[in-house]
Amino acid sequence: GQNIDQPTEMTATEGAIVQINCTYQTSGFNGLFWYQQHAGEAPTFLSYNVLDGLEEKGRSSSFLSRSKGYSYLLLKELQMKDSASYLCAVMDSNYQLIWGAGTKLIIKP
Amino acid sequence: GAVVSQHPSWVICKSGTSVKIECRSLDFQATTMFWYRQFPKQSLMLMATSNEGSKATYEQGVEKDKFLINHASLTLSTLTVTSAHPEDSSFYICSAHGLAETYEQYFGPGTRLTVT
């Protein structure tokens, strides 16, 4: 079966760095997405990785290792507004997104 | 660019009535639109995939006679919840993709449906 695993909840301090991990097992791979979702709102796109390595964009970076079925999202200089759920999603061989359950990130002052 | 709108943003209806939710791509042509449902504290659940001009493909366990999807144009898809019941109360989100480069899905703001 297809499976995406990510931690249910994480807590971090304002100004610090947090790494959210995602492991996956899917039938085929056409890229991995990270989305941010605030409570009661739709997800917003953060990053897309299809090749191994690190993609950096502003305060966030996303890493992918296809051989290990592993990705992480790194958020730096955390701000209170970063409190949200972070969703990992993998596009399978049918170009369908398989979603993780999301990681709720709580930022404390 | 790549803006998707949804209407209404929230709706309350009585049990047994039908509700239509619209999803529009405002500045691009959406060859494919997706309808998701999200219950509180849970992840997105794909309900169906719709391609313009053809019948929607429903995920296992989703009743196609209850959740009617129409994708009549490259910028509009509608989801009609027929004979709604309280258990249909949820957050319904559409997304669209029409950009070939990354297959990124652009999400609408969602519709909060409450059935009383």
How would you describe the overall organization of this protein?
The complex is a heterodimer of chains A (109) and B (116). Chain A contains no helices and eleven strands. Chain A is mainly beta and 109 residues long. In chain A, a hairpin with a 5-residue loop joins strand 9 and strand 10. Chain B has no helices and eleven strands. At the A-B interface, strand 5 of A face strand 5 and strand 10 of B.
Main traits of this protein?
heterodimer; A: 109 residues; five-stranded antiparallel β-sheet; 0% helix; globular; B: mainly beta; seven-stranded mixed β-sheet; four-stranded antiparallel β-sheet; 11 strands
Summed up, what is this model?
The complex is a heterodimer of chains A (109) and B (116). Chain A is mostly beta strands and 109 residues long.
- Structural classification of chain B: mainly beta
Hey, roughly how much beta strand do the residues of chain B contain? over 45%
The assigned structural class of chain A equals mainly beta
User: Gyration radius of chain A, to the nearest Å?
Assistant: 13 Å
Q: What's the N-to-C terminus distance of chain B? A: 37 Å
Q: What is the count of β-strands of chain B?
A: 11
| String of helices and strands of chain A | EEEEEEEEEEE
Mean pLDDT across all amino acids of chain A: 94
What characterizes the major β-sheet of chain B?
A: 7 strands, mixed
Overall outline of chain B: globular
Oligomer type? heterodimer
What's the tally of helices of chain A? 0
Mean pLDDT of chain B: 90
Instruction: Evaluate the radius of gyration of chain B.
Output: 13 Å
Count of helical stretches of chain B: 0
